[in-house]
Amino acid sequence: MLSNGQRLAVGMAMAAVAVTGSVGAASNGVQDWATITTPPGITLQQPPGGGRGEDRNPELKGEKRTPGFLAGASGRRNPAAGFMYANAEGMTVYTYAKDTTPGKSSCVGECAKAWPPVVVPARAKAIGDWSIIAREDGIKQWAFQGKPLYSFAQETEIGASKGNGADGGAWKAVKLNPDGFVKNRPYGIGIADARTTSGYALVNHLGSVAYAYNGNGAEPKTECATSVCSTRWEPLQAPKLAQPIGDFTLVSRPDGVRQWAYKGKALFTFSGDLMPGDVFGTAFSKDFEPAVIARNFTPSAASISFDPARGPIVTTKDGFTLYRLDTSFHTPDGHGLPGSQPGSPKVGFAMGTAACDANCLKTWKPFLAGPNDVPSAHWSIMVREDGRRQWAYKGFALYRYPGDKNPGERSGSDIYEILTSDSPAKDVYKESKFGQLTIRGSDSAANFWSFVEK
Q1: 35-36/292-295 β-pairing
Q2: Coil, strand, or helix at residue 150?
């Protein structure tokens, strides 16, 4: 961290906006069909991309740099790039075409040194597409859709897939494919990331999230036909010639509309959802829940909460804002605005926990993981110098700010620490396996604290 002479804290206290409540997996049975995107020890990592800092500094292009070089530190996440399945350390996992016998790995000996098996954590169990195979060396190895999984020993960058296509194409990187969660579904019904819930939901042809009816009383075929909710809840209509497919069936409503149902639950959309992925209907009625068919892992101590002014943010289970420390180079974007600066995982992993030193810890409190917690999905675990295990989300170590006295407050967001050109990088960040931040004499930069977007 910066010395006292180098630190300039600009506290921009933002008006607190109450969190309307956390959203996640249903607890009343409607979404018992929802599978898990990743088991323990399997994470989701975004493929690396160029940062916009590099785009504005042509002299940096083509320069040889170590993995994790942060000249493009203002680079954003690019959700359109999707996510790679990775091991607990964030290294992409692969399948091997020569594994042809179900439940058996053919990569042993020298092969296993170059392509280490992805080890199953203690107490983890098979679930959905994820199974466990016993190797000849006694190691328990994860398999996805029956294919044993491996990492690549020469991989050095989070989310990269350097080994893809090796051995004449025998090695294939495994990418998250949301369409695979429900293979048989009607035309016009898709699967998309729901903005305010940690997972993937059924959506209509416009990208509006579908809801499953879970109310008591009337059966789904008559519900909303005559009640006031008919002005807000619209049946997910099926074409006249549609036929049942997979777990999708048809409901004939009294008004003549044919309506899709999934696993026996009638599907609706909510007129108050204005953007693809919105699920504002959760605050309007408890009888309807988003039709989430795949859930991302979230630690028991954390939650995805909805802030009316900021959208979905990462919080503690009781609604207190969690923060990340990020670095900005020459960026004109406003921080602390929805979608303006979600942060590059490459930056977060390179900064690690060393960016918040003993002086920093006098103010900021690490969001700690338990001794038996295991990384999964977008959640990884970083180990501090003192041995404490700290949760990280999409590459960034997470912290609490004691200045937040009530759930939903964000008084710790947009606190800046100016980095000057005479601040050697080694005094700011320590070397890590993902590289080190380099500050040139011509660079101007700042660390800043921000709430964490989903």
Answers
A1: parallel
A2: strand
Convert the pLDDT of each residue in 326-382 to its tens digit: 876 554 445 555 555 567 788 888 889 988 988 899 999 999 999 999 999 999 999
Rounded CA separation 123/140 (Å): 11
Cα-Cα-Cα-Cα torsion 284, 290, 296, 299, nearest 10 degrees, comes to 30
Q: What is the pTM of this model?
A: 0.80
Instruction: Rounding to the nearest 10 degrees, give the CA dihedral for residues 296, 205, 271, 221.
Output: -90
The residue among 451, 430, 418, 425 whose CA lies nearest residue 440 is 425
Centroid of chain to Cα 4: 35
Strands 94-96 and 171-173: antiparallel
**pLDDT tens string 134-151:** 999 899 999 999 999 999
The percentage of the chain sitting over the pLDDT mark of 70, rounded to a whole number, equals 72
- Short-list 186, 200, 199, CA closest to 259: 186
Distance CA 199, CA 13 (A): 31
The position carrying tokens 């409540």 is 21
Helix H or strand E segment including 294: strand 292-295
Question: Residue 133: beta bridge partners?
Answer: 141
Say which amino acid occupies 119. Answer: V
Report residue 212 as tokens.
């499953």
Q: Which two tokens stand for residue 90?
A: 């964030």
Residues 6+ apart with CB under 8 A from 439: 419, 421, 423, 424, 425, 428, 445
The encoded tokens of residue 117 equal 């098996």
CA distances from 351 to 43, 209, 312, 347, 363 (A): 19, 36, 24, 6, 18
CB atoms near residue 117 (< 10 Å): 23
